[in-house]
Task: inverse folding
């Protein structure tokens, strides 16, 4: 029960944080809850599917299938987040005024929102698949009853979700005036963190070189700790980032700022 | 410029066979333990870890020190490329059975 609690908590925590950031950043956007809900559903179904095919995915691409798969889904998530961030900049004022005019076309208010569903789904597949695989393994091998294992898992998930909820209200309260800048900034860092993970997976798959190590901040904040996990999900914190990870992180940040600058001029 | 690019591409393609020469090390997962739990590898060289999961349940080979994580299904094996890393110790663990599945890579 303790094992299922810990693992469930860890994996759900990453998912909860990502969903919280997306929810907070899109507050006020019409229909966003519905789309994020679709994303969560897609995430659950997708996790089960990915878990079922874990073996064949892993064996693909000369044993590097898992890494390539993760790199691809995270890259798509990064692109979707960047698109959302850029879109929200031009629609920021409209959202703040909470325009409820019937005349506002579906295309204007909702078209990019499916990107939220995609991001949430993709972000969930990785952690979700791990949860499914872990649970199926422990259920078949553990001496404990199914009830004990499942209650541990549910408790872990609930704790993670509570932290997500706390974070959500904390973000809303902390930044009511500057909600979009703070949460928008978090979305940007979320994308950068995911981009660094893409670099990590591509390096693991032997597709790109690491180009050397940088620092080791494990003594300061372990990635295994709760705080470390939260920062990892929010900002992409890594104990020992490789040079290529920093390059991807920085480049993503730069590209986003350039895109925001370019579209600001056009939108004004 | 184009000629140099063509040359560079040709050389990089020719270097693919080098992957076959990557030193390989085997780690077995049995009863939620890694065997061997300490693996010595050459420093500053890329190596291949072949992880054979002989347990019926899946395990996730993970290392923050090495920046690697990989789920290996029960009764299956997986490959993890490590390095090149500088000399030192790098811990790894099995995330699904962290209490017992612990190990380290020692690069010399």
Result:
């Amino acid at each position: 029960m303790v094992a299922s609690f810990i693992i469930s908590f860890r994996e759900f925590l990453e998912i909860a944080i990502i969903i919280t950031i997306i929810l907070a950043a899109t507050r006020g956007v019409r229909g966003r809850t519905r789309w994020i809900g679709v994303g969560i559903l897609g995430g659950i179904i997708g996790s089960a599917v990915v878990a079922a095919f874990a073996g064949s995915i892993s064996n693909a691409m000369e044993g590097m299938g898992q890494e390539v798969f993760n790199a691809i889904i995270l890259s798509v998530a990064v692109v979707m987040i960047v698109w959302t961030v850029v879109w929200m900049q031009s629609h920021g004022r409209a959202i703040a005024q909470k325009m409820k005019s019937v005349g506002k076309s579906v295309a204007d208010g909702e078209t990019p929102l499916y990107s939220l569903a995609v991001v949430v789904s993709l972000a969930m597949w990785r952690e979700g698949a791990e949860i499914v695989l872990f649970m199926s393994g422990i259920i078949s091998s553990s001496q404990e009853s199914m009830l004990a294992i499942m209650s541990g898992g549910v408790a872990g998930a609930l704790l993670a979700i509570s932290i997500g909820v706390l974070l959500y209200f904390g973000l809303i309260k902390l930044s009511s005036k500057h909600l979009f800048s703070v949460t928008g900034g978090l979305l940007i860092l979320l994308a950068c963190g995911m981009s660094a993970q893409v670099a990590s997976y591509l390096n693991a798959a032997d597709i790109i070189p690491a180009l050397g190590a940088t620092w080791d901040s494990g003594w300061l904040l372990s990635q295994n700790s709760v705080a470390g996990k939260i920062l990892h999900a929010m900002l992409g914190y890594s104990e020992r980032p490789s040079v290529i990870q920093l390059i991807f992180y920085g480049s993503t940040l730069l590209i986003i700022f350039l895109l925001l600058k370019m579209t600001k001029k056009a939108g004004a | 410029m184009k000629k140099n690019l063509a040359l560079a591409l040709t050389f990089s393609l020719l270097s693919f066979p080098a992957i076959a020469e990557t030193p390989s090390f085997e780690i077995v997962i049995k009863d939620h333990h890694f065997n061997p739990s300490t693996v010595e590898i050459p420093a500053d060289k890329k190596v291949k870890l072949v992880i054979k999961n002989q347990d019926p349940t899946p395990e996730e080979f993970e290392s923050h020190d090495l920046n690697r994580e990989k789920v290996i299904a029960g009764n299956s094996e997986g490959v993890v490329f490590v390095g090149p890393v500088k000399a030192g110790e790098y811990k790894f663990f099995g995330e699904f059975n962290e209490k017992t599945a612990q190990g380290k890579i020692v690069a010399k």
